[in-house]
Structures are given as structure tokens and as C-alpha cells.
Amino acid sequence: MLEVSDLRLAFGGVRAVDGLTFQVGANEIVSVIGPNGAGKTSAFNCVTGFYRPTGGRITLNGTDITGRRPSLIAARGLSRTFQNLRVFGDLSVLDNVRAGTHLWLRQRVFDVLLHTPRYRRSEQEATDEAHKWLDFVGLRGDRAGLVRNLPYGEQRRVEIARALARRPSLLLLDEPAAGLNHSEKAELLGLIQRIRDLGIAIALIEHDMGLVMEVSDRIVVLDYGKEIADGTPAEVRDNPAVIEAYLGREAGPEETEEVRGARTD
Amino acid sequence: MSQLIWNGLFVGSFYALVALGYTMVYGIIKLLNFAHGDLYMLGAFTGFAMLGAMGGLVRSSSLVALLVVLVLTMVTTGLGGLVIERVAYRPLRGMPRLSLLITAVGASFALEYGTRIAAGPNPRVYPVRLDGAAVDVLGARVTMQQLVLMAVSAALMVALAVFIGRTQQGRAMRAIALDPKACLLMGINVDAIIARTFFIGSAMAGAAGVMAGGYYGKIDFLMGFIIGLKAFTAAVIGGIGNVPGTMLGALVLGLLESFGTHWVGGEWRDVFAFGFLILFLTVRPTGLLGERVTERV
Amino acid sequence: MTAVPDRAKRPGPTIVTRLMENRHLGWAALAVGLVAPFVIATPYAMNIMTSAVIFVMLAVGLNIVVGYCGLLDLGFAAFFAVGAYTSGLLATRLSWPLLATVPAVIIATALAGVIIGGPTLRLRSDYLAIVTLGFGEIVRIIANNLEVTGGPSGIYGIPGLFGAEAADPVVFYYAALVIVAVAVLLAARLGRSRLGRAWRFVREDEDAAEAMGVHTYRIKMAAYIAGAIWGGLAGVLFAAQLSAISPASFTFLQSALVLMAVVLGGMGSTPGVVIGAVVISLLPEILRDLADYRFFVFGVLLIVMMIVRPQGLWPHRSRETARTAARSGES
After folding, report:
1. pLDDT: is C151 or B292 the higher one?
2. What residues have CB less than 8 Å from C12, skipping those under 6 apart?
3. What is the architecture of the domain spanning A1-77+168-265?
4. Is C106's pLDDT higher than 90?
5. Quick one: closest CA in B to A53, which residue?
6. Prediction ipTM score
7. pLDDT, tens digit, for every residue of C206-222?
8. How far apart are CA A65 and CA A50, in angstroms?
9. With an 8 Å Cβ cutoff, are B297 and A11 in contact?
10. Interface A:B, Cβ pairs < 8 A
11. Do the domains spanning A1-77+168-265 and A86-167 agree at the CATH topology level?
């Protein structure tokens, strides 16, 4: 489904992503983990078209999408959420999720201007779809109100519902558990599994190891922009390189912090 | 030919003085200060009022008087810039860009038509007119006054470059341009530095206004509109937010206009200049010396 | 840094807000417009009322660009000018009936929208603002300098909407009112469609919109072209009303006034913008004595509005009704 080969991205002299290769197969949940600044989000941004990679090749369902603009990649069946929550705060909850219908909802200007029955049907379809996914993610609260008035955890759900309303074949989740409390994380776990049950492949960036180990089919581990491991949760857990990346090397902690602080993304 | 070059450089140095304020403010808070051109206008009128108040003193030594007025005007327009920043822009910091831009348009209107109320709608004639003996430099007719005005512009620009490049204050400005939040955390008084930037930029524009008044002789309350656009064009050509780039861009624009006017006629001068603005924005939006910026998600 | 004020704090619905959300409001406004000539029908009053109606059309056009899509266009008068000149030139030089020029005007303004938007819509929004300002000046200067457009004195003898002789002002007023009412309705409908939603997504967050498959460049271009067409058609009405046009009618001041109407009424809100336009065009008539202070007050008002009430006097509200808000299973 998604194939990333030898992906490279440099900001000036800093190699944020340095030769990353991984695949996400149909109906698979693949997590990308690594310390802060390892290049996970940068890699995601290359895959989704927000950064233009300096090298490598990305294909989605057999089509080369390297360096295409995000909307064209989305049109190929990819959908994503953002690390720091990018909902449309001043729009209603329903409108936010209707954004997901943009790619497949068909409306002609003629129908819109005359408000033909065809227009009304398509609007109803968009609304129904929005409700369907809000039900699916279990949103509590007012759907006609503005998103910014919802609590943080609910806004996260709206963002996921919006991504699902795109009807993607591959969903990229960038730290979906960040800022969630314990019970919300448990619900998220269930939600991710239910999304997979719909036949959607998932790529996941996450720091919560409990969640990652529980939900992933495979885990890709990044450090300093390079891939240091790729395997099942059990394999990755016992991999010495991974343990080293997470627990630190011979170098003193200050030095490591400084180096990593300089390339936090 | 050399006359065209000289004219271009001379006009370019005016543009540069105005464009610097534009570019400094943009560099530090990413705001297009539409009212900036109007501070140039305000400078011209302030100078006009001061010269009027000084009356007879002026005639004997017009150039010296003009220099004194220049300094006083710079202080006045600098304070004007401070007021605008404090009243119109600071309350909106962190709001959507659209709100800030609209506020800037409002500030520009308020300045223009405020001046109109105070000074009347008709053009005013400067009491001091600079014209003097011309010398011939490489085939170009150059007046003493032009030389003095260019020297003043150059001195102001050098002073600014030193200030930004060498002093603590200048370093703080550059730091805020990069990351205002980090600066706040590092204990830099961001509000004060931004205010200072407005002061300096507005003072430069005011200086240009007085000089333009003395040179062209006629001022009116809308004179800042076109020069504001031109200054923006200059900043874009050079690389907005980049101080040496802006100076370069202003000179380039001055030359382009000088030659363009010669070839296609004076009535097309502004079309020519804006055409270049659009061309530059399309082909090289970062300008001649601007750096490529990757916007991060 | 100043804290971002919390705009979420809103009181519950009052009588005013409930009135503002009433669906029949548009009909009420149209009725006021229809009745007005019965109250006062002097040629002078008709002239002012017709100008106000045309100004509403301009404001609604700019609202598509600024209000829906969040693109600041400071040279909107350029489209007004392109429409007026295209129509005026075809009607006087080629003796076309004015209504026959409408398709040509639509094509010309859409083309102008593409030419202006093409290079600039890829840029950051603040660059767009100043480039449109430059374009507004370019169009005016070109009209001023070319021979075919009549130079500074412009074009004379443009026929009325329905024929060579200038129609009765009351008839023309009603024609303009109906045309503009339809235009307002169509603009509002565009705003409530898939395209209109996409405009709002772009305004709110371009990156998130892109991620949802919204081709932001094309969507912005669509807004720009739509705004241009509305502005151009307003130009046709303008040419028909005055029967003479000159570059002096299409200055930055005109663009700024339209923007003022949109901001004052409420960006993105159709009733707000209509009322804003009526207020801005009628206010000078009411406050004759304050003519000198008019633009100064506008400038200050722009600043105050942005600080105190950025959403405008009559803000846009989400159009979710009880029916759409109900879950699918229950409806």
C-alpha cells in the first residue's frame, strides 16, 4: 500500500530524515517510534506532501507520490491527523467533519445556485456522513457548536472523524494520544482497532509505548533520521539498538539533550 | 545614460529610507505596515510645520535649518510610529493575520485623512526649496543638494546597519525576528524591542519625507500612498526582512524606474514598477538576497 | 505578549440574535428595498438608493474573497473597473445593447481574476494584499493612459440597461434591485456549498484543508474569480446608471470603502455585508456636515472594529439547523 524507500530530507545541513525505508501493507497497523527529534513527523510530512523530500521515493497504492502537493496525495486515498491538532476552530463540529467529504462529494455549480433536489441530496449525504463518523469516534457534546468550545480530547476525536470522512485507504495518525488522560487513551486504543476493522491501514506516530505495543502489527524505530529497527513489537522490544537509543549512549545526558534540542520538530 | 543612472540612484535612496522601515517591521513581527508610507507623509508635514514656525530664521541658511528640522522630524514621526504600534497593532498581536492587515489599512486611512483635516486637502508648498549649482559628474547633471541628500541617506543607512549588526539592541531585534517566544523566555523585553523597531523605522521614513519635501517642494496628504507601495516593491525585490537586501532592492527599483521611464514614458512609471513587483513575487518571492524559508507544519 | 482574547465567551441567544438568524430576513430586506421609492422618489434620492444597491453587489463580491476565503483584496475596484469599461466600450464603440455585454463582462473579469490571482495566490496572504493594491493602481493607470478608454475623461454616452435612452430612474432602481437581490442570493448559496465550505477551510487553516484534499490554490482562484465576476457585473450596473465612467471612480478609496463595508457588517456574513454596504453608502448623505471627517472616522473605525469586534456588527453564524444537527438515526 504505502512504500517509502530511501527517504531523505535535509533542512540546511541537518539531516532530519536520512535514508528511511518502510512499508505499510493493506490492513496493517505500523507504528513509527523514536526519541524526540528522530525525524518521525518530518517523515510523515514528506509522505503527506507537506515537505518536499530531498531524496527517495514514496509510492501509494502503486502510484509515485513523491513531492506531490498534499491535496493530490489525499486524493490518492491518504488521510492524516496532525501532531498539534489542526481542527477548524471557528467552524461547527459538523462542518469540520464535512471537510472530509470534500474529495468525494460531487456538486455542480448549477445545482448549488438553483438549490435543486440533487444539491439537497448531496448536502444531506455530507451531513449524514459527518454524523456517521462522529458516532463512530464516540463524540460527546454539541455537534452544531464550534469546535473550539469542545474539550481537547473531544477535539482530537473530531480530527480523527474528519480524517475518516475522507474514506481513506491509509490513515496517518501523528501522536493521537498526546494530551489524553488514561481512560481516553484506552478508548483511543479501541478506536484504532475499530478503524483497522473497517479495512483501513494505519501508520501511527506515538510516544505511549503501552499503546504502541498493544496495537501495532509492526514497529519502525527511528533515531537521528535513520531507521534502526523494523519488526514486530516483541522483536523491537528486545532489540539492543532500540534499547540503546531510548536509554542513552556512552555520551553524557547533557550533550545528547543539546544535540536533540537543536532539532526538535 | 549616466544621467539616468544618477537619477535612479537618487530616487532609489529615497525609496531605501522608506523601505527600511517596512522591512524592519516586517522582519520582526511579520506585519506589512500599510501605514508606513503615511509616516513619510507625516514627516513631510511635520517638517513643513516646523519650518513655518521657524519663519525668517530659515532663509539665511536653509541647508542647516533643514538638517535641524530633519532630526526633530525624525523624533516626531518616530513617536508617531510608536503610537500606532501601541494603539493599533499591539492589542492584535497573535490574532489572525487578516485582522492585522485590516487594522493597518485603517491606520493608514486615519493618518491620511487626519492630516487632511489638520492641513487641508490642497497641496502645500515647502518654504525651503533646495536647488543650487549643478556640477557635471561623468556626463550627469548633479546638484549639490542631491549630493547632500544622498549623503544624509547613506549616513542614516550606515548608522542603521551598524546598530542592527553590532549592538545588543540590534541582536535582540534579530533574535525576535527568529523566535519571539524564545526571546520572551530568555528575558528579552519583546514589547520594548518591537516598539523601538517601529520608532527607528518611522524615523527613517520621516527623514525621507522632509527630504522629499525640501527637494520636490510640494507635499500633500496622499503622497505616502504610492511611495509606500514603491517601498514595499523595493523590499520585495531585495528580500523583505533583509536590511542590506532592501537597500539594494531600493536602488535597483530606482534604476529600473529611471530607465523604464526613459523608454516607455513617464505616465507608465508606476505600472512599470508594480509590474516588476509582480514579476519578482512570481519568479523569486524571496528577493535578491532573501533566504529560502521552509514553512514548517 | 498579549493574551489572545477568548472569543468563546458568548451570551446565550437573545431576541436580537434570534431575529438575526431568521430565514425570512432576506425577504424583509427586499421588501424594504421595494417599498422605498414609494416613500421618497426624488431623482436625487433614487440616485443615492441605486448607488447603494450597486454598492451592495460590490460588497457581496468582495465578501466572497475576504469573508469566505480570507484573502485580503485591496484592489477590488479593479474588477469593478474592468466590468464597467468592458461593458462601456462594447456599448459605445460597437453599439452593443448593454445586456448583450454581460457575457463579455463575465469573461473579461474572470480573465482579470486569473491574471491577477495566477501569480499571487501562491504567495502568503499579506503579499496578496499589497499586490492586489498594486494591480488596482495598474488598472486605473492603464485606463487613464490609453486612448481607447478615453484617457482621464473616460467614456460617455453609455446606453441604459434596456435601450439607448436613459430609462426612468425608478425603473432602473427596480431593475438594479432585482438583479442585486439575485446576486446576493447566489453568492450566499455558493457560500453554503461544498465549494463555500472549502473556502472557509482555506481561511481557517490552509494546511489542514490541503490534508483533506482541498487544492488550496484552485479553491482560492475560484473565490477570486467569483468575486471578480460579481464586481464586474456591479460595474455594468454602474456604467448603466451614470452613462459615463472615468478612472476617477475606481481609485483605492473605492476599494477601501468596499472593504470597510464588509468588515463593518461582518466578514463572511451575507446579511451583515448587505447592511454594512447600505450603511457605508448612505452614511455620508446623513452626515453631510461631517464630510471632512468621514474617511478619518472610517480609518479609526477599522482599527476599533478589529480590536473590539472583529466579527463585525452582524457576525456570520454557522448554518446548522435543528435538522442537520440531529444525528442521522433520529432524522
Report:
1. C151
2. none
3. 3-Layer(aba) Sandwich (3.40)
4. yes
5. B294
6. 0.88
7. 999 999 999 999 999 99
8. 12
9. no
10. 8
11. yes
